[in-house]
Amino acid sequence: xxxxxxxxxxxxxxxxxxxxxxTLKSSIFRINNDTTTKNIARTSNPxxxxxxxxxxxxxxxxxxxxxxxxxxxxxxxxxxxNSTWGYPFLIVTILLFFFQTGAFLYNVYLFFKYKPIxxxxxxxxxxxxxxxxxxxxxxxxxxxxxxxxxSDYPEEKMQLLAVDDGSKDDTWxxxxxxxxxxxxxxxxxxxxENRGKRHALYRGFELGTGEIFVTVDxxxxxxxxxxxxxxSPFVTNEKCGAVAGNVQVLxxxxxxxxxxLNVSFVMSFEFMRSAESMLGSVLCTPGAAxxxxxxxxxxxxxxxxxxxFMGQPSDIGEDRAMTNMILKQGNHVLxxxxxxxxxxxxxxxxxxxxxFIRWARSNVRENIAMxxxxxxxxxxxxxxxxxxxxxxxxLKMLMSYPFLAxxxxxxxIHPVLFLSSTLLSILIVSSFPVxxxxxxxxxxxxxxxxxxxxxxxxxxxxITPYAIATANxxxxxxxxxxxxxxx
Length: 487
Prior knowledge:
- The strands form 2 sheets. This protein has a 9-stranded mixed β-sheet, sandwiched between helices.
- The protein has helices at 14-27, 46-68, 70-82, 86-113, 140-149, 171-182, 197-207, 226-236, 256-278, 294-298, 301-305, 318-328, 349-371, 384-398, 400-413, 415-429, 431-440, 443-446, 448-459, 463-469; strands at 3-5, 128-134, 158-164, 186-190, 212-216, 220-222, 240-249, 289-293, 308-309, 312-313, 332-343.
- The chain contains 20 helices and 11 strands.
- The protein folds into 2 domains: 46-112 and 394-453, no CATH class; 116-385, Spore Coat Polysaccharide Biosynthesis Protein SpsA, Chain A, CATH 3.90.550.
- Strand 2, helix 5 and strand 3 (158-164) form a beta-alpha-beta unit.
- By secondary structure, it is α/β, with parallel strands linked by helices.
- The model is unreliable at 1-21, 25-43 and 481-487 (pLDDT under 50).
C-alpha cells in the first residue's frame, strides 16, 4: 500500500524559521533582490565571450555576404518564381509573413495593455494546497520545499504536500529531512512505484483540502511573494480557472545553454503569455509553477488522469492537458508576471533536445484536442483570441515540413546563399527579444538571444517535424538520476 510518513509533530519554531531563511539565502537565492536575473551569467568568462563574439562575426558576415551576392539572390528569386512550384510557394510564404507580422503586432499591443494583478490582503487570500511531485531530484526537492515554506502566505491557509513518485535516488531521504525541519507544515507521501508525474499530481489533488491547488516542480524555487501573487487572480476574477507563473532559469551560472534559455524564457513568458493572458487564454500553465481553482480541477480530473492519445495512456504534457480542459469548461486562464519561479533547465544538448521533443509532442496532441472545442461556443464572451492563438501555433507546426524541404533544397542548390540569408535573418528577427530583455533587465545578458537563435536554427530545427511524426510515442525522456543536476 502507498504510505504516508509523518516524521515529526513539532511545529515550525522561530529558530527553524531562521535556519530555513539562512539555507535559502546561501544555497538558493543567488539573485538580486530587485530582479531575479540581473547580474548573473557574467559574460566575462572567456568561453562566453568567444561564443558571443563568434555569433556576431557570423551574423555580420552573413549580412555582408547578402550585400555582395545581391545579384545572385535576385537571380535565385527570379528562377524560383518562374518554376512550377516556386510561385505558389512564394505566395504562401508572403501570406504567412503578413499573418505572422499581424499576429506579432497584435501581441505587442496586448503586451502593453497587460498588467499583473496585485496581491490581495491576507484576509482575502484563499486556502491553498501546494503539491510538489518529485522523481529522482535528490536534494533539489529540499530546496524547493523550504522555499515554499518561506513564502509570505498565511500558514493557516497553506497546505504543503510532497509526493515521491518512486524515486531511485535519495529524493525520499531529502523529503524526510524537509519533514523534520518543517514539522506539521509539510505532509509527505511515497508512491510504491514510479507511475509518472500525472499520477503523483493526481494523488495530491485527491488529498488536497484548499480552495486553490498550486503545483510546483521539485527542481524549482519560488520567491517569497510568488504564492500570494499566483493565487490572487482567483479572488479578483470569478471566471479565472487557472493561472500560470512566470518561469525564469535558476542554473544560468552553470553553462551556456541555460544562459541562452534564460533570455528565451523571458520572451516566452513575460511577452507571449502576457499577451495570451489579455485574451484569457494562456495555452499552457507550466509545471514549474501554476495554480488551479479546485472546482475546475475536479471538473475534469477523471478525464485528465485517464487521457489517452492514439489508444495509449498519456504520460506527458499533463500541464498543457489540464490547461486545455479548464479552458474547455469556459474558464479564463491568466498569467501573473509577478509570480516568479526559478527552475533548472538542461545544461547539455542531449537533455535540451529531449525536453523540447516532449514539449513539442505535447503541443501536437493538445492542439488537436483544442481544435475540437475552440471553434464551438465553449465560453461566454469573445473567443477570437483563443482561436487566433491555436491557428497561429498550428500553422507553425503544419508549415514545418514544407519549409524543411525548401531548406534542404536551398542548401543543395545554393549553400552560400542559404547560409548568408539565414544569418542575416537571425540578426533581424532576434533583435526584438534582445531589445525586450535589455529593456526589462540588462543589455549584456540580452545578447544571448542572438546565440540562442543561431543555436536553435542550426541544431534544433528538426524538433517540430520529428515531434509531429512521433507524436504517439510515450516517455518522459529526461527523467533520470541526479548526477547531472545542480546540487
